[in-house]
């Protein structure tokens, strides 16, 4: 029996340092707050790196040279097709099932068809290759299931399009404008990594038993789904719809807070003064609203932000602007969280690989608060 104290208890593990990592830093530069991926600020990555470059950075440790990027991108483009049994499965699964649940199943099925399915879970190089295949295939999985559930013909992946343009083309059957492609790509860059958030933690816990990378990603998808985490981008859109008009914002928020409801898309466990990702994406919401010629949702979002800030002092998180961004791209609300997952898979994989490279089983303790020293009575006396 270990002797660690059960007096020190951190509900929700708040403030607990459970890992060392070289992947992301939420302290920002010199502890001033902000987000960095492998030492690069997200503000710099947002203007200076594509999703492909950022995914390479996370998986391989540094930004790619042009030849490394060409090869990496080539590998992604040539890995986009899905095993046929998975496509057939989409035709069997009821269209009412949420795409996030289907994505969780998809990754599990993809693992069965991975060419290196029998590689040891600690094989670093094989795990990187598996991660690259998942990045490519999860995008196709989200798009194919969406088209099948709507009774639409599939749009095959196009090797002449980058990751973002190809995804939007597969879903909408139309190559996006450059502004849309850029905004979508930026959202993937901002969604792809975030230190030891709940889903990344669950992926690391899963593989800390020396389970495999696919199991880690399946666990992460199940964790991301909840509305307190990734599922919040879908819920944030519902807030906008329910508020319905700029004039309604102040009273709607007041009533919701009086009922002790959570305003989805606001607040954050780590960022108490503002999520830097939300600040970057907001500007792109304005640009896309102008491009589609409809600023209604921007006009509703602004007074909601003001009301939540003034009444509860909670700034928006990344899920608040991303909901509007995806709406302007004509994407179904139920795709918002799966898109988060298909971006985050690069960060999850980097963490899984880091965990397996320096593994120690994750096994915390709980403080027991149940009844003590009970004696078993014979069944007829209970
Ligand atoms: N709306 C209303 N009140 C809130 C919100 C919110 N969005 N967020 C926090 N609070 C309040 C709580 O009710 C509580 O108030 P009280 O002290 O008066 O009881 C206080 O702030 C502290 O709340 P906790 O839940 O303890 O804080 P925590 O650090 O766990 O919150 C969380 C983080 C879960 C993200 C929370 O802010 C929340 O529920 N937000 C809404 C869901 C959301 O947007 N999630 C996405 C997060 S970002 C991401 O995962 C990509």
UniProtKB/TrEMBL annotation:
Q: What is this protein called?
A: Citrate synthase
Q: Please report a single Pfam family linked to this protein.
A: Citrate_synt
The protein's UniProt keywords, in alphabetical order, are: Transferase, Tricarboxylic acid cycle
Source lineage: Bacteria, Pseudomonadati, Planctomycetota, Planctomycetia, Isosphaerales
The residues forming a coiled coil are none
Q: Which GO terms describe its molecular function?
A: 2-methylcitrate synthase activity; citrate synthase activity
The entry's active site is 268, 319
Keyword field contains Transferase: yes
Q: Name one GO cellular component term.
A: cytosol
Membership in a protein family: Belongs to the citrate synthase family.
Biological-process GO terms, alphabetical: carbohydrate metabolic process; tricarboxylic acid cycle
Q: Which reaction does it catalyse?
A: oxaloacetate + acetyl-CoA + H2O = citrate + CoA + H(+); propanoyl-CoA + oxaloacetate + H2O = (2S,3S)-2-methylcitrate + CoA + H(+)
Pathway it belongs to?
Carbohydrate metabolism; tricarboxylic acid cycle; isocitrate from oxaloacetate: step 1/2
Q: Tell me yes or no: is Transferase among this UniProt entry's keywords.
A: yes
């Amino acid at each position: 029996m270990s002797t660690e104290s059960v007096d020190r208890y951190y509900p929700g593990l708040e403030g607990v340092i459970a890992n060392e990592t070289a992947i992301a830093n939420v302290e920002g530069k010199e502890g001033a707050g902000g987000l960095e991926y492998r030492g690069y600020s997200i503000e710099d990555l947002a203007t200076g790196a594509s999703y492909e470059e950022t995914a390479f950075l996370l998986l391989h440790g540094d930004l790619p040279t042009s030849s490394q990027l060409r090869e990496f991108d080539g590998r992604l483009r040539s890995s986009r097709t899905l095993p046929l049994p998975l496509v057939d499965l989409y035709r069997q699964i009821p269209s009412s099932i949420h795409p996030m649940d289907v994505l969780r199943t998809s990754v599990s099925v993809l693992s069965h068809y991975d060419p290196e399915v029998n590689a040891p879970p600690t094989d670093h190089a094989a795990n990187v290759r598996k991660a690259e295949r998942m990045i490519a295939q999860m995008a196709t999985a989200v798009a194919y299931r969406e088209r099948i559930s709507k009774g639409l013909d599939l749009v095959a992946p196009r090797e002449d399009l980058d990751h973002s343009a190809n995804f939007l083309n597969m879903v909408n059957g139309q190559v996006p404008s450059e502004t849309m492609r850029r905004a979508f790509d930026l959202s993937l860059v901002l969604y792809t990594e975030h230190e030891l958030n709940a889903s990344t933690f669950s992926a690391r816990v899963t593989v800390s038993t020396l389970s495999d990378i696919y199991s880690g990603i399946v666990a992460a998808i199940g964790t991301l789904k909840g509305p307190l985490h990734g599922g919040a981008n879908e819920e944030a859109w519902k807030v906008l719809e329910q508020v319905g008009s700029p004039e309604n914002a102040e009273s709607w928020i007041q009533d919701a807070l009086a009922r002790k409801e959570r305003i989805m898309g606001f607040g954050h466990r780590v960022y108490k003064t503002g999520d830097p990702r939300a600040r970057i994406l907001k500007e792109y919401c304005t640009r896309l609203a102008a491009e589609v010629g409809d600023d209604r949702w921007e006009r509703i979002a602004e007074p909601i932000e003001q009301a939540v800030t003034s009444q509860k002092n909670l700034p928006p998180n990344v899920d608040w602007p991303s909901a509007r961004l995806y709406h302007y791209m004509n994407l179904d609300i139920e795709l918002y969280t799966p898109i988060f997952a298909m971006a985050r898979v690069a960060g999850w994989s980097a963490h899984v690989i880091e965990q397996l490279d320096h593994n120690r089983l994750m096994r915390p303790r709980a403080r027991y608060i149940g009844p003590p020293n009970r004696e078993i009575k014979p069944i007829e006396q209970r």
